[in-house]
Amino acid sequence: MKFLIITGNPKQDGLCNSITEKIRKGAEEGGAEVVMLKTMGVESCKVCGNGWGTCLDKHTCIFGDQTISEQNKFNHMQGVVKKADCYCIISPVYWGEPAESLKNFLDRIRRCEFGDKGTLAGKQVLLVASPGGSGNGALTCLEQLDRFCRHTGAVIFDYIGINRWNNDYKGAAAYYAAKAMAEGRKAGVTVD
Fold this sequence. Notes:
Blueprint: E1 2-7, H1 15-29, E2 33-38, H2 74-83, E3 86-94, E4 97-98, H3 100-112, E5 124-131, H4 138-152, E6 155-161, H5 167-182
Parallel strand pairs: 1-2, 1-3, 3-5, 5-6
Antiparallel strand pairs: 3-4
Helix pairs in contact: 1-5
């Protein structure tokens, strides 16, 4: 099983990074091959072709992301998403929203993978929001990530809002959620 962690975290340390590591470890210990996709540098949708360029009918983006490295170009990243079996989307929270580069990526992938025939349709996703500072904004961030999943047909496995005063027990929850997903647990199935 390929477990893809999509992160909008621009930092190399801090709470979001430590939780990402717990999720990675949980997925690996559950038997998954873990791949990390960092969205830094992804530019916003250009809304070409009267609002729908090639994304609607060809499921690809014609905008080239010229200024960033090959591994961070949108079409390469979309290919990584297509190869995964399940996902974790994790973001620090800025102004009650996901990180800007993650929002850019999700907006573009949503256009290309919209609905029940897209790459994410039927696949499980763990949603994690990590606010700093006041610890506020996790719910509004998770609502935006929820909306992305609803538009793409992804199945939400769980929601985790984690901050600096609950990371001891929420970090454990993130680890065990990733492990359970990697072991094949399905959302909506009762656990004994």
